[in-house]
UniProtKB/TrEMBL annotation:
GO terms for molecular function: isomerase activity. It comes from Thalictrum thalictroides (Rue-anemone). Keywords: Isomerase, Membrane, Transmembrane, Transmembrane helix. This is Disulfide-isomerase 5-4. The lineage of its organism: Eukaryota, Viridiplantae, Streptophyta, Embryophyta, Tracheophyta. InterPro entries: Erv (IPR045888), Erv_N (IPR039542). GO terms for cellular component: COPII-coated ER to Golgi transport vesicle; endoplasmic reticulum.
Length: 84
């Protein structure tokens, strides 16, 4: 099992040099919670960055003059044949 002195050495938030301070268990707990939170947030942001998402929207032209909007689509498929 992990001893209390090893957990106390994890304290990230010491403001005075190590030789002049005494590590606390609450400071170590706060450090561990902060580090886990940062890793979780980093992982969530990395997952969101690596996720491919596509968004399509269609807007209907509701012009008051009664004319229709002409839409032309030019779609090219470069590789149509399966590769062997």
């Amino acid at each position: 099992m992990i001893s209390s002195s090893k957990i106390k050495s994890v304290d990230f938030y010491r403001k005075i040099p190590r030789d002049l301070t005494e590590a606390s268990l609450s400071g170590a707990g706060l450090s561990i919670v902060a580090a886990l939170s940062m890793m979780f947030l980093f992982g969530m942001e990395l997952n969101e960055y690596l996720t491919v998402s596509t968004s399509t929207s269609v807007v209907v032209d509701k012009s008051s003059d009664g004319e229709f909007l002409r839409i032309e689509l030019n779609i090219r498929y470069i590789h149509m044949l399966p590769s062997n």
